[in-house]
Design brief:
- By secondary structure, the chain is an alpha+beta fold.
- The chain has three domains: about 140 residues, no CATH class; about 250 residues, Vaccinia Virus protein VP39 (Rossmann fold); about 170 residues, no CATH class.
- Helix content is about 25%, strand content about 15%.
- It has 21 helices and 32 strands.
- The strands form eight sheets. Strands 7, 8, 9, 10, 11, 12, 13, 16, 17 and 21 form a ten-stranded mixed β-sheet that branches. A five-stranded antiparallel β-sheet has the order 18-19-20-22-23. Strands 4-5-1-6 form a four-stranded antiparallel β-sheet.
- The longest helix has 21 residues.
- The radius of gyration is 28 Å and the shape is globular.
- The N and C termini lie far apart (about 55 Å).
- The N terminus and C terminus are likely disordered.
- Bound molecules: S-adenosylmethionine.
- The site of S-adenosylmethionine has 26 residues, from helix 7.
């Protein structure tokens, strides 16, 4: 008997304030409950998603705490160094941990993850909290996650981007991207050596607030080829390129909103709320998103569809309907030889449709065919919704299900390798599939007789975003291959979406005086893309922040209205104005924020990067504005004394010194004022850096606020910069204390190069 539930748990839907993936960087999240649901058991036993003998291990695994998993991020060489630190420093220290009479294993590498860069911690949270070796490791994890070297991510959630097979030149779309753990993986694949890739990733989410989580998350892994947009993915607009060409994608990830029952080990509230209707009601939205993805994919391109649900109505039924909507144009790729150590179950070619009709209250009713279901409606045993729509026909296996190679889909079951549950399907568009991105012949009109068109439109999860395309008519599955996004237009000529409130984007004249001052200060070479410096105002005015993009991002920004594309952010924040005064003694008033330092670095000329040791780092961390004279005599002090006021890029060399240890060299921005220096990272980052490097927080509290406004003769003025640029919520503070400019709380974190 199915259990009647109140609210639906929709992964990524508005009722769920935190999705599975949102908890990725919360190392302590845990909720308790009784871990049972008779409806769930009846539903999946009847579906036969696994042999009977697997049932007990499956349920047993679902009731166990999910191990913590994480992966090492960043460019390859860098990631390997961090991986070696875990392997050679931390793991040996956790060999013989005993707690309450029981022994616990150290973290282990996930055998199937490429380069062995992903790890699993099996020890339960209480052991991690209460034993010294695990506690140390936990501190390391928190610090490295903060600076972007590690990413906590559920093991199965790492799988879809791996099957996307992204190359640095690829044009990619992540349709339902927030909070961005898979987005980060795609960015890493686009920039494998931290070199600027020519590729593109558009990371999209329909929830406006969640797009800002996405911006934050990707700040840890900045990319010049990144655009964040805010759309209902099923209505994702076509994008124009130069000469009126349309953008098509090499790679698309459709990690769609789903009922999320594969996350039961983590999202314990699903035990109480689960119902068969959840999956049924999401099917149509999932299909519309997938069909839109298929239309935007290049011939020969690859598309990965994934859910964290076991439910065939969200999985195989969606794939089968989408394939039948485009007969002969797509096939499911056989990836059984890829990630050979990953245990997976084949997709199913037959499944059942269960309904929980309101008229029968809690009862789960099975219908063999769509016709049986219609019959039940006629008899009054089932109710259509008030628009005369019920369950769509596409929920049932089509007559040609056996010919679609659905067995090539993958279902990841929790007891196979102690993970959560997931479903992944890799689709390829045939090289000769000439259908254009704007194909007007709808998929459902082309369905073969074996696959009748979907019959219904279903609810889409409500989301709290300011209604991207709220005015667009709700389209049924039949019309999704040619969506007509309907922005709220003002006039025909000016197709602006007036509901969209982000600031405009424009490019700075490469000969602008401010650009020249940057070119001079950082002695940037010809390789520096001064044509690709973008700002967030209409006039190309470098007022507060300068972003760097690559060519393809520029082409998109320049050939499309930013409101119609609902662009939330683009490129990498590379320069932030540190001083807005007109004083001439500071010739370049820009600093390199942490997000962008690695993007600027390859272009700076000789003598710009200043080398320093941990001794200097110690002084810069202990004191907020150490006078240059306070540093010990030597090369560093001489160089700093000779420099003009402005931003310096300092390379702190790896090694052991001054009671600290750095495994990798680290590049940090330092502001040189008249008499003193200041490390340009915020308070929290300073503390984390101090803990990572010196094993304790050596940072003194900042001077009282009122001191900031003392302005000794001839020093930089305290001016919060507020000119009309975007970046809601980020106020650049160019403050003065004892004559020195300070940037507190303005930085994101990437501390290592
Ligand atoms: C499963 S989560 C995505 C997780 C993400 N791919 C990751 O790895 O971090 C689903 C996301 O879909 C978004 N979403 C829901 N309906 C959508 C729609 N119609 N179009 C685009 N995104 C949607 C939700 O806001 C949610 O962020």
């Amino acid at each position: 008997m199915g259990k009647h539930r109140g609210k639906k748990p929709i992964r990524g839907g508005a009722r769920q304030p935190q999705s599975r993936d949102d908890k990725q960087n919360d190392w302590n999240a845990f909720v308790g409950t009784d871990k049972g649901n008779a409806g769930f058991e009846e539903y999946y036993k009847t579906q036969g998603i696994m042999p009977e003998a697997d049932w007990e291990p499956f349920m047993g695994s679902l009731r166990k705490e999910l191990p913590v998993t994480f992966r090492v991020t960043g460019s390859r060489a860098h990631a390997e160094t961090i991986n070696d630190i875990i392997k050679n420093t931390y793991v040996p220290n956790m060999q013989n941990v005993e707690f309450e009479g029981q022994k616990y294993d150290p973290p282990s590498q996930l055998s199937w993850y490429p380069g062995q860069l992903a790890w699993q911690v099996d020890a339960p949270k209480r052991v991690v909290r209460k034993t010294e070796p695990f506690k140390n490791f936990q501190r390391f994890l928190v610090g490295e996650t903060e600076v972007g070297n590690l990413s906590r991510q559920e093991a199965v959630s790492m799988i879809p981007p791996l099957f996307l097979d992204v190359q640095p030149h690829h044009i990619c779309l992540d349709m339902c991207a927030a909070p961005g753990s898979k987005t980060a993986q795609i960015i890493e694949a686009l920039n494998p050596h931290h070199t600027a890739s020519t590729g593109l990733l558009i990371a999209n989410d329909s929830d406006y607030k969640r797009t800002h989580m996405l911006v934050h998350q990707t700040g840890r892994m900045p990319s010049r080829g990144l655009i964040v947009t805010n759309f209902d993915a099923s209505l994702f607009p076509s994008i124009k390129l130069k000469g009126g060409k349309q953008l098509q994608f090499d790679r698309i990830l459709a990690d769609v909103p789903c009922s999320g029952d594969g996350t039961l080990r983590k999202n314990l509230e699903i035990w109480n709320k689960w119902g068969a209707a959840d999956g049924n009601s999401l099917h149509t939205l999932q299909l519309r998103i997938l069909e839109r993805a298929m239309n935007m994919l290049k011939p020969g391109g690859r598309l990965v569809y994934s859910t964290c649900s076991f439910n065939p109505s969200e999985d195989e039924a969606v794939i089968a309907a989408a394939l039948n909507g485009k007969p002969g144009k797509f096939h499911i790729v056989d990836v059984s030889a890829e990630l050979p150590h990953l245990k997976r179950r084949s997709g199913m070619s037959s499944w059942k449709v269960g309904s929980q009709p309101a008229v029968k209250a809690r009862q789960l009713v099975w219908y063999d065919t769509f016709e049986d279901y219609k019959e039940a409606i006629k008899k009054g045993e089932e109710k259509e919704n008030d628009r005369g729509k019920g369950l769509p026909r596409t929920l049932w296996p089509p007559a040609n299900a056996g010919e679609l190679n659905l067995d090539r889909c993958m279902r990841l079951l929790p007891h196979d390798q102690n993970t959560g549950g997931f479903f992944v399907c890799v689709l390829e568009k045939k090289a000769d599939a000439t259908e254009s991105n704007e194909d007007s012949a709808s998929s459902s009109l082309k369905r073969p007789a074996t696959s009748p068109p979907p019959a219904s439109e279903s609810k889409r999860p409500r989301d709290k975003s300011p209604a991207p395309n709220a005015s667009a008519p709700a389209t049924s599955t039949e019309t999704t291959s040619a969506p007509t996004p309907a922005p709220q237009t003002s006039t025909k000529k000016d197709k602006r979406d007036l509901t969209f409130k982000e600031d405009p984007l424009s490019y700075v004249d490469p000969e602008h005086e401010e650009v020249k001052s940057i070119v001079e200060r950082f002695n940037v070479q010809d390789s520096f893309p001064r044509n690709n410096l973008m700002v967030r105002n209409e006039y190309g005015d470098p007022l507060r922040t300068i972003y760097m993009t690559n060519e393809i991002v520029k082409e998109i920004i320049e050939n499309n209205d930013y409101t119609r594309l609902r662009v939330v952010s683009a490129g990498v924040k590379c320069f932030a104005r540190q001083d807005s005064s007109q004083r001439t003694e500071i010739r370049c008033k820009w600093r390199t924020p942490m997000d962008g330092i690695l993007e600027v670095l390859p272009h700076v000329g000789e003598g710009v990067v200043i080398s320093a040791t941990l001794e200097e780092l110690r002084v810069l961390l202990e004191d907020h504005y150490p006078p240059v004279d306070s540093f010990k005599d030597g090369e560093w002090k001489n160089i700093m004394q000779s420099r003009d006021m402005g931003c310096e890029i300092v390379k702190f060399e790896a090694g052991k010194l001054a009671g600290g240890e750095l495994a990798l060299p680290m590049y940090l921005p330092v502001w040189k004022a008249k008499m003193s220096l200041s490390l340009m990272i915020d308070k929290r980052e300073k503390s984390i850096l101090s803990l990572r490097t010196f094993g304790e927080d050596i940072c003194k509290p900042p001077p009282p606020q009122k001191d900031f406004h003392k302005k000794p003769e001839g020093e930089v003025e305290s001016v919060p910069v507020t000119e009309g640029e975007g970046e809601a919520g980020i106020a650049l503070v160019a403050e003065v204390a004892q004559g020195d400019a300070v940037a507190e709380n303005t930085e994101e974190s990437v501390l290592n190069a």
